[in-house]
Design a protein that fits this description.
The structure is a homodimer. By secondary structure, chain A is mainly alpha-helical. In chain A, about 70% of the residues lie in helices and about 0% in strands. Chain A has helices spanning about 1-25, 30-40, 55-75, 80-100, 100-110, 120-145, 150-165, 165-170, 175-190. Chain A binds a DNA duplex (16 and 16 nucleotides) through loops.
Chain lengths: ~200, ~200
DNA sequence: CCTACCGATCGGTAGG
DNA sequence: CCTACCGATCGGTAGG
């Protein structure tokens, strides 16, 4: 069935090109004609593969949300300390942001352009993820592993630091991914100032 | 001169409404009709106060850039340690982000929609600011005040943490601005893990 | 997968 | 500051 196979593959090509365009120009500023040109099609032909512009955004947002939540589930299942859980989570975030920067960035920045009811559904998933992340921070504070900081401040500082990796980190640059993980975890866990 | 006075004031109202809309919906998704409605005008009447949609974005971006650079200059002039300079800078960032969240956010997220030559000009100012920020980090590492981390990693982690304040911090919420500064500086300077 | 085309909306202008 | 309107572009459809 080469036809079915090609159709599947072409849809994937479209989704990946869209993620890159959404990252670079934003969802509203990306036209279906831009996208068509990026995958060597006429705009109207896109609709043989996808139902609408927003369907693409939905797929990017919810695929990534599921990805993060399934990683969270795995980490919660392990019987490890809050410190190890935070380290695992941060490593997962960094890895995803460096391996698949286009998709993650669209997910981070463009979800607000979803329309209802998807917007509410997405926010619910996101809130769920944040609450489970925050629970680990609170646990670490309770056990005395972490400094007694406001858990909301810590949560969003951690997430924000990693959220903008795509903006400045280039895997081909001077810093390798291993060094990045080392220095970023070092900074986030132990701070800037030497004791 | 009530006429001149009103005109001036109306332009300011338009700029502030635009900053809020750009923050909430993004620059491309904000139409001049949206903006007109927000300030109780017809779209065409906006053009008595401003030359174009992009002029508004330019003003927001360059006003903020100048604001940050002048704060940097002030801090550089003081003969203080790298630690104090970083603290001053972070406090300035947090204060601006909490006091004037709409304008700062537009500046952070929407500058990429500038067209040339403003885009290049803006990037140059931004790079200049980042380099001077990074120089302070490097100085602190050299004097032994800071941990020997990669200065690029530290720079962007700091900037990113504060960049997303607008997204989750509400001055009317449970955390006061003083507490926010305390906990955020505590986290960024001393890290999450208790020694 | 294309050509041809739709109604809606865009930023902006003319003219008063 | 408004009404009326412009050409360009948008997401998407019809029909083959």
């Amino acid at each position: 069935m080469p036809t079915v196979k090609n159709k599947k593959s072409k849809k994937q090509v479209i989704l990946e090109a869209a993620a890159r365009l959404f990252r670079d120009k934003g969802y509203p500023a990306t036209s279906m004609r831009d996208l068509a040109q990026a995958v060597d099609l006429k705009a109207s032909s896109l609709y043989n593969h996808i139902a609408s512009k927003e369907e693409i955004l939905q797929k990017i947002c919810f695929d990534n949300a599921r990805h993060f939540l399934s990683a969270m589930k795995k980490i919660e299942k392990k019987d490890s300390s809050a410190t190890d859980r935070i380290k695992d989570l941060l490593r997962f975030h960094i890895q995803l942001a460096t391996e698949d920067p286009t998709s993650v960035t669209s997910f981070n920045d463009e979800w607000r352009h979803l329309s209802e009811p998807q917007l509410t559904e997405f926010k619910t998933l996101r809130k769920d993820y944040e609450n489970r992340f925050k629970a680990i921070i609170k646990e670490g504070i309770k056990t005395g592993e972490f400094n007694a900081l406001n858990s909301t401040v810590v949560l969003y500082s951690l997430l924000s630091s990693i959220r903008w990796l795509y903006d400045w980190y280039h895997p081909d640059g001077k810093i390798t991914t291993e060094q990045l993980v080392d220095h970023l975890l070092g900074f986030l866990l132990y701070g800037l100032i030497k004791d």
